[in-house]
Amino acid sequence: xxxxxxxxxxxxxxxxxxxxxxxxxxxxxxxxxxxxxxxxxxxxxxxxxxxxxxxxxxxxxxxxxxxxxxxxxxxxxx
Length: 78
Prior knowledge:
The chain is of the alpha+beta class.
């Protein structure tokens, strides 16, 4: 699990999308529409991406990678 967390975090931090060669099976970031807040990467088995309200922090998931889109820009937080 530690390797999955490290590899997934680095893939998102470096490329914004782990669905590139070298990271098979990891989810890709979906596109955010104007009506959606953002997405959260859940480091589970298997990892998954789900919609979220960035103002809500879910303590069940201590490591959260969040992508927010505003005017075509994205940001990551943990």
